[in-house]
Amino acid sequence: MSGAARAADPGPAAAIDPAAEPGADPASDTPAARIARWCGAYAPLPGVPDEMIGPDGTIRPAWARFLDRLGALPESEIVARFASAGRHIHDTGVAYRVYGETAERDWPLGVLPLLVEADEWRAIAAGVAQRAALLEAVLADVYGEGRLTAEGLIPAAAVAASPEYLRPLHGVAPPGGRHLHLYAVDLARGPDGGWRVLADRTQAPSGTGYALENRLVLARALPDVYNALDVERLAPFYHAFRAGLAAAAQRVEPRICLLTSGPYSDTYVEQAVLARYLGLPLVEGDDLLVQDGRLHVRTVAGLKRADVLWRRVDGDFVDPLVLNPTSRLGVPGLVEALRAGTVAMGNMPGSGLVEGAWLSPFLPALAERLLGEALRLPGLPAWWCGDPAQREAALARLDDLTLRPAAQQAQGAFTSRAFGAARDPDETARLAAALRDRPGDWVAHERIALSTAPVWDGAGLVPRRFVLRVFAAWTPDGWEVMPGGFCRIAEHADVQPVAMGAGVRAADVWVLSDAPVEPATMLPPADRAPVRRVPGLLPSRAADNLFWFGRHLERAEAMVRLATALLNGAGAVSLAREDVDTSARLRHLLRAWGAVPSAEGPAALLAAQALSGGEFWGSALAHARSARGNAASLRERLSGEAWRAVSQLLAALDPAGPADSEAALLDRAERALAVTAALSGLAQENMNRAGGWPFVELGRRLERAVNTCRFAGVFAGDGASTDDLGVLLELVDSRISYGARYILGVALAPVRDMVLLDPYNPRSVAFQVERIRERLADLSSLRRDGMPERQTRLVLALSGEIASTEADTLSPAVAEAWEARLWSVAEAVAARYFPGTSEAERPETLVALA
């Protein structure tokens, strides 16, 4: 949790501090006393059902069991556990983005779960499964035979007017036989305590990834409480959902991809969590290509066929050729592949039609007609005003009803116009006129006061309003409902938790089994787990981000070393002319690389700008931010430790203020270098060599070789001073190696040899070029003629020249020429493997593979 989030909800640390209660006696702080103190001021809202306190005024059994277990823990232990949970959320980058914002916010997970007993959950699950089946049947009819509109069971005008009705999909049989693979519903308790549907989610339901993260974090914080209460596990649901997607494909071992709109999606972190947990490639529209009526993923090894696409992009945006022509998120020709039946999609484009408010008044009759049974989970009483009888009924009660657009989805029930005493007569007259002028555009429904559940407010438990989202997945055995869900709950009494944002946080949902619960995992049974050593799917976009992740980290490190060298030179007590010249070279290099606006000024100021001047494109902080941007697009591929290290690098480089002393700047630089070393170690020791590691390594090695050539050209010229050579050895982290080999001090030829030619020095250009050659050899070749590709030819030629060069013949011009050739290698790698480059070298023009 972010600092702001923790300030809004201090959590158990403040809630259970005995010092917060005047006159509290720590000696009498027994479990019973703790629970009494937490619940002493808890008062349910009048006329509103509450999850913890029953109608008889006593604590419900589930909450009594939970509080007994929680109260048995020492208060210091509770504080430590939830502090650890908050750090885990922040350090591992579990975040979300409010629509319209660019900055991410830490995921605001509350410290208490929402508890549901087994009997009540069975009724909820049955109602959710029934509702999913009903909406599937409606979609099948609307995009198929159209009997429901012909018989007048649903209004054709409402269907045709909905922007979610995608006419090009009419008559297209969904591959795999289903429009819906994942369904979600938002629920709240009505005044009688029964559950009511607030909104259906069929477009691209979100929240399953956050439900998973909520469970992982809270079960980690309260393992003893979690296990003692026999909470239903979530893993079987995800396993069943994945099996349902696989069953829709034509091949036995299909390739299932998760389509995202990219790292600026509100829920991108959640999508990355799901991709990693389910083992799905996370792809964007640019990663995909329809060729010969089939969908393929652009990968570094050529085109790979995609069999199933789980979309998290609105249906209208999936194909700019047939649907929304302004879309930059979709795949041209995707509808063609759907028509051909070569790719299945969850959910089908156009499924958002049944999210509209217009459908709600007709669902009870549709359940009887299509399923032969009553609707188990009713919505709020509603009237579609396009029907004359329903319109007149709404007009007769207009002061008591809420209006929302008929085609509007989800949260309109809580953001629509005022009602009752809050609505002035002129507004009422305008609404009545609107209903008569375009009645089909409006749905009227009764309002509901959301029920409450307990949260911490800093002094104890208080009731806050909540909305429960429940998920159902289609499986080969029918609809399966997640035994849990995703709960949004208000932090303050005056907040309606209709969407994640200010004043709203999440809560895990614990369904308490009435029988012992067996541990569950996503791992397949041992007898159905074939052994493979082939690399996973690596889209070209992901390889591009990995490549630049390595390059930006190396650039950040180089800038930190330059700033450190400048500071160390400023601290030396010497007035020799060569010191001044060396300092000038450092300053001009910082200026040339965009880290400082001017080469003039105090060394401490320039070093501070080079380290932490985020407004300067070449500063270490700017490169660290760029690396984090690359990492943000790779969340499903980076470990939590790697994300934490990137965050620590940003923290180390974050400016502490203009008054930083040279000592403070050096300390910041040392911390930054330690983190970059840790990131390098994580890449070397934790990344699978058959995955994206070669591209991280290529980026790092190319950038380090380029930087070293530039350093040698500047500081190892024919007239280089001892200070110049000493700085060069510092910049390439080779002073200790040089000192161990040469006792008599620095000299030009030995320094050039160690920095440029020595194949045993892990910082030399020769060493980097050899590693680049090895990494290129690891990558797949798309040519079948046996000839090396351009980037390989360039590296082989450079490697041979370096190996045959002697230090005595080196000059700055040679280093400059090598630098230019290394840039050519980088450009050749980009043209061969990454998107957005020359069409002549795009993988799809060479070969398409299964």
Automatic annotation (TrEMBL):
Gene3D superfamilies recorded: 3.40.50.11290
The Circularly permuted ATP-grasp type domain, residue ranges: 113-490
Signal peptide: none
Compositionally biased spans, kind Low complexity: 1-27
Pfam families in UniProt: Alpha-E (PF04168), CP_ATPgrasp_2 (PF14403)
Top-level taxon of origin: Bacteria
Residue ranges constituting the DUF403 domain according to the UniProt record: 538-834
Region (Disordered): 1-30
Name of the protein this chain belongs to: Uncharacterized protein
